[in-house]
Write a structure and sequence with these properties.
Elements lengths: L9 E7 L2 H11 L5 E4 L8 E8 L2 E7 L4 E5 L5 E9 L2 E5 L2 E5 L3 E5 L5 E5 L4 E8 H11 L3 E2 L8 E3 L3 H18 L8 H18 L11 E2 L5 H12 L7 H8 L3 H11 L4 H18 L8 H7 L5 H12 L3 H6 L3
Antiparallel strand pairs: 1-3, 2-5, 3-4, 4-11, 5-10, 6-9, 6-11, 7-8, 7-10, 9-13, 12-14
Helix pairs in contact: 2-4, 3-4, 5-6, 6-7
InterPro entries: AraC-bd_2 (IPR035418), AraC_XylS_family_regulators (IPR050204), Homeodomain-like_sf (IPR009057), HTH_AraC (IPR018060), HTH_AraC-typ_CS (IPR018062)
GO molecular function: DNA-binding transcription factor activity; sequence-specific DNA binding
Protein name: Helix-turn-helix domain-containing protein
């Protein structure tokens, strides 16, 4: 059995002069509503991409060869960073225009439409991080309540400070994942590297909270709550009881429930259900409908009653699990 967290990298690459083929590739790997329109010399269209999916993150190096315009409706499911390696990209998102180049990355929150003017000489690193993964990382690792979507800044520096380190980490990860015999080829090692990319972005991007990490608010959580959160995030598929979680925390059931409601905003079991649902949603979104099974994925994440699971899934995401598997957009 392969447990969530031990991810196997999946590589996808394409080089083509066919616009429709490039569109289909990007819609499958990134967002179905994505629209790509050449505005430069169509004869110079030369799309090339080398992309690796690793659980909740998708990292790729992408270029088009000619000037293009990219339009995308609200991302909803993911945070996204574009970091040019060459050239300059003009981005408009949520009313803010950013010019990204090798000195500055552009950041997208999962809300609001996106418009890109992407010149032919611009080749960039594209980093997509599933919304739940970034928010859960802060939620668990930093002992803080986060707002959703997190109010991340529109861009960050790639030359100095943490942005330079984060970009170097992403480039090294992509290079390692392209190979077959590096450390990143080991699933557990790759998962740790993936987590560094996710948490590193949260601590790199600009935000309006002074020295506080982006999007954080609320008091530090007590140790009893942190112990239970650590366990739930480590093994979300296990069948816990309220009494077992209370024993892990070292307090009574009622005390733990009250502490969770105060510091997490819901009961331990409600938090576990949300964690599992987000995990199932992420896995369904990146699975092949020809080979994956909703029931198998649900069972792997700890859901034993498929009827109740389907109802809870629809309540959280507005669609059925099978609809997500067929159309992950």
């Amino acid at each position: 059995m392969v447990y969530p967290g031990a991810e196997v990298p999946v590589r996808a690459g394409l080089r083509t002069t066919d616009v429709e083929e490039a569109r289909a590739f990007c819609r499958k790997l990134y967002y179905a509503p994505l629209r790509i329109e050449p505005v430069g010399d169509p004869g110079r269209f030369d799309f090339s991409a080398d992309v690796v999916e690793l659980g909740p993150i998708t990292v790729g190096e992408v270029g088009y060869g000619t000037d293009i315009r990219v339009l995308c409706d609200g991302l909803e499911t993911s945070y996204h960073v574009l970091a040019p390696l060459t050239g300059m990209l003009r981005s408009r998102h949520r009313g803010t225009v950013v010019f990204a180049d090798p000195t500055r990355a552009v950041v997208y929150r999962p809300t609001g439409d996106i418009e890109l003017d992407w010149p032919g000489n611009c080749r960039l690193l594209s980093v997509k991080i599933e919304r739940g993964a970034l928010e859960r990382e802060l939620d668990a690792a930093l002992d803080q309540r986060v707002v959703s979507p997190m109010p991340l800044g529109a861009s960050f520096d790639l030359v100095d400070g943490p942005g330079r380190t984060w970009l170097a980490l992403v480039r090294l990860l992509l290079s390692e994942l392209r190979g077959t015999d590096g450390l990143a080829s080991q699933p557990r090692m790759a998962a740790r590297w993936r987590d560094m990319v996710v948490s590193g972005l949260a601590l790199t991007v600009e935000h309006p909270y002074g020295e506080e990490p982006a999007g954080l608010q609320g008091p530090m959580r007590p140790r009893t709550v942190k112990r239970v959160l650590d366990v739930l995030h480590t093994e979300p598929w296990r069948q816990y009881t309220a009494a077992e979680l209370a024993a892990i925390a070292g307090v009574g059931v009622r005390v733990l429930q009250d502490a969770f409601r105060q510091h997490v905003g819901m009961s331990p079991m409600a938090y576990l259900r949300r964690l599992r649902l987000d995990g199932v949603h992420a896995e369904l979104s990146r699975s092949d409908p020809g080979t994956a099974s909703v029931s198998e994925i649900a069972y792997r994440w700890g859901f034993t009653h498929l009827g109740r699971f389907a109802g809870a899934y629809r309540s959280r995401f507005g669609v059925s699990p099978s609809a997500t598997l067929r159309d992950p957009s």
